[in-house]
Design goal:
Elements: H1 6-33, E1 38-39, E2 62-67, H2 74-81, H3 84-89, E3 93-98, H4 102-111, E4 116-119, H5 121-130, E5 136-145, E6 147-151, E7 166-169, H6 175-186, E8 201-204, H7 210-215, E9 221-225, H8 228-234, E10 238-242, E11 253-260, H9 261-266, H10 268-287, H11 289-304, H12 310-318, E12 320-322, H13 328-341, H14 356-364
Parallel strand pairs: 2-3, 2-4, 7-8, 7-9
Antiparallel strand pairs: 1-3, 4-11, 5-11, 5-12, 6-9, 6-10
Helix pairs in contact: 2-10, 2-11, 4-5, 6-13, 8-12, 10-11, 10-14
């Protein structure tokens, strides 16, 4: 083969270098996008207290915890800020990661990037069923409530008026999406679950942009969790329906605690310590609601660079109830709603709950034990 002329070689080499330089930012961005969550800055003075070198170390040097910067994840927000988890973990260090969507957190758990996470019931059920029951266990409840149907009062004045309107949910197949689809069916209306088209147009919109979508008229309302619901109310929307009114005793699971089965088997003492921290945090929140609300908002400001104004924070906080009970019966019912909507094949949920360590902690704290509704490992 003949040699390439030096001038042509230089020209070709120069073009390749320019192309490589142009590609580099894209590659770096892609790698960053593959990350499983945002690690809490190590030099942040507001970060959770460091492990005590003189404290007793459990079977793991660290535990990687995932959660959302969201009021329905009040337990980790408050418990980590107040050091209640670290106190129970002793010399075992907490490493925190935050997520904006359940599927990303499930992916992180599967990859070993986190060990324990706070998450909604739908992604937990999906993750469990897709792995054939091998990747996770639900080990505790965390929160109930905090989900509302809020609408434009100029366009929707009654539940019947929802027909023919555009209603947002956070994500196809997420917990609120399933709830809206089920409610639509209960009204005798029809919607194609995948496309969202039908008697009601279901518009899947990220919670971060839903308020803007409401303001510009792209949607007529939304079935969303807090604080998005209260943000819409602050923009002039009205609460048409509180989802809690659709459930027995007005309780339904919105946030659970999950753990990697591998981590649970290898480090049950660490999992027990985290659960003890969770139970004590929930009790602390109930005993100190004003300080807990302020703590949660401080954490939201640190994690998202923006605190919630009182007009949004106060009603949102009031509608959320922290609890230890995973409300397993309601999670099972939510799974059946997803099946009816065509978003999930009939799931085999036997063994999805392992409440052994939680009930041990509850007994120690003089609290009543909780049920797995026939879906436990026992």
């Amino acid at each position: 083969m003949s040699a390439q002329p030096r001038s042509a070689f230089r020209s070709t080499t120069r073009r390749r270098l320019i192309a490589a330089a142009a590609t580099l930012p894209i590659l770096v961005g892609t790698l960053a996008a593959c990350g499983y969550g945002s690690d809490k800055p190590k030099d942040d003075p507001a970060a959770a207290p460091a492990a005590s070198s003189g404290a007793k170390k459990l079977s793991a040097d660290q535990v990687k915890i995932g959660y959302f910067p969201n009021l329905t994840h009040a337990t980790p927000l408050v418990g980590l800020k107040e050091g209640l988890f670290q106190k129970e973990l002793g010399a075992t260090k907490v490493k925190e990661y935050t997520f904006n969507a359940g599927p990303a957190e499930i992916e992180a758990l599967n990859a070993g990037s986190i060990d324990i996470g706070w998450i909604g019931p739908s992604p937990a059920i999906n993750g469990y069923t897709q792995s054939g029951g091998t990747n996770l266990r639900i080990i505790s409840g965390s929160a109930s409530g905090g989900v509302k149907l809020v609408v434009n009062p100029d366009k929707i004045k009654s539940l019947a008026d929802v027909k023919g309107k555009k209603i947002a949910t956070p994500q196809l197949g997420n917990t609120q999406d399933v709830a809206l689809l089920n409610w639509i069916t209960s009204q005798g209306w029809k919607v194609d679950a995948q496309s969202g088209k039908g008697d009601v147009q279901v518009v899947r919109t990220d919670n971060k942009v839903t308020p803007d979508a409401y303001k510009n008229g792209s949607i007529d309302g939304a079935w969303v969790p807090e604080p998005t619901a209260s943000k819409l109310v602050a923009e002039g929307a009205k609460v048409l329906l509180d989802e809690s009114t659709l459930w027995p005793d007005k309780k339904f699971v919105i946030t659970n605690v999950i753990v990697s089965q591998k981590f649970l088997k290898a480090h049950p003492d660490v999992v027990e310590a985290v659960l003890r921290g969770s139970v004590k945090t929930n009790a602390w929140i109930q005993a100190n609601p004003a300080q807990a609300k302020a703590d949660a908002n401080d954490e939201l400001k640190r994690l998202t660079q923006k605190a919630l104004p009182a007009a949004v924070l106060d009603p949102a906080w009031q509608s959320i109830q922290v609890l230890d009970d995973p409300l397993a019966a309601t999670a099972n019912q939510e799974a059946q709603h997803a099946v009816a909507a065509g978003l999930l094949k009939s799931p085999k949920l036997d063994g999805i709950y392992d409440l052994t360590l939680l009930n041990k902690v509850l007994k120690e704290q003089g609290k009543p034990t909780v049920s797995a509704a026939g879906l436990g490992t026992e």
